[in-house]
Specification:
Elements: H1 2-33, H2 39-61, H3 67-76, H4 83-118, H5 129-132, H6 147-150, H7 156-176, H8 183-186, H9 191-210, H10 216-231, H11 245-253
Helix pairs in contact: 1-2, 1-4, 2-9, 3-4, 3-11, 4-10, 7-9, 7-11, 10-11
């Protein structure tokens, strides 16, 4: 049993690493180098990263890759997952996200330094959320609106609602993907692609508002790396202490999955039981 759990945890580390590395590297490429132009190009890379991560890890761990999804599945099917496994999954996802953040920091470090010099940005100082935004999310998106001018447009509760709403849509598609009555289930081999495209859609729609996190590990892991890399209070707690929004927002979006039409189906469970 312990070996089986270890395999699942390693799978979650690898899957979350793939997702977060591909996604944050795409943001870093767009922000620091300027090769990718427009939010859609970044969004499609996030979607590809998610699809690849699901294909790679679904047979081994169920490809949760997201603490919010893990918690939702726990409350749906407590007989299949105990609280210790929940902590194991979430810890594994956080480790994968941290490793991805470290990788991005190492690979793009010279470009970050160059960007800061050219734009006269002091890491950890006012306005440096722009350079930190490749790691954690900020509202409003500092690459679209400077925080000072955008604060009146997007406050904390607005951002919290957007994060919950987007996560709810993503979770709905995930739960739908293995509903035996769903057309998506009948093409289950395409489910990771559909889920990835859903992520692409949501980032394209809401990325300019909150940077579209939908995943506490995806945000907090790289954000922790940014904190120790010199962004400090800009990373945690963030401008106006807003880092908690990217933890509570996604969890709030899936807090009562039993009320969902598709809530009783665990689309990411490698060992589903009969219902």
């Amino acid at each position: 049993m312990q070996n089986k759990n270890l395999q699942k945890y390693v799978s979650e580390v690898i899957g979350t690493y793939i997702l977060v590395f591909v996604g944050t590297a795409s943001v870093a490429t767009a922000l620091y180098i300027g090769v990718l132009m427009g939010i859609f190009q970044v969004a499609i890379l996030w979607g590809i990263g998610l699809a690849l991560a699901i294909y790679a890890t679904a047979p081994h761990s169920g490809a949760h890759l997201n603490p919010a999804i893990t918690l939702a599945l726990y409350f749906l099917r407590k007989n299949d997952m105990d609280i210790f496994q929940v902590f194991g999954y979430i810890a594994s996802q956080l480790v994968g996200a941290i490793l991805a953040g470290i990788s991005v920091l190492i690979i793009f470090g010279p470009f970050i330094n160059r960007f800061e010099i050219l734009n006269k940005i002091t890491r950890g100082g006012e306005g440096s959320e722009l350079t930190a935004s490749a790691f954690g999310e900020y509202f409003p998106n500092p690459d679209v609106l400077p925080h000072e001018s955008g604060a009146e447009l997007v406050n904390a509760f607005h951002a919290l609602g957007v994060e919950a709403f987007g996560t709810a849509i993503l979770a709905f598609v995930i739960f739908m993907s293995l509903d035996p009555k769903s057309a998506l289930h009948k093409t289950s081999g395409l489910a990771p692609i559909i889920i990835g495209l859903t992520l692409t859609l949501l980032i394209s729609l809401f990325g300019s508002i909150t940077q579209a996190g939908w995943n506490p590990a995806r945000d907090f892991g790289p954000r922790l790396v940014a904190f120790f890399a010199g962004w400090e209070k800009i990373a945690i707690p963030g401008p106006h202490g807003g880092f908690w929004i990217y933890i509570l927002g996604p969890i709030n979006g899936v807090k009562d999955p039993n009320q969902s039409k598709y809530g009783r189906f665990n689309c990411m469970d490698p060992e589903p039981r009969n219902t």
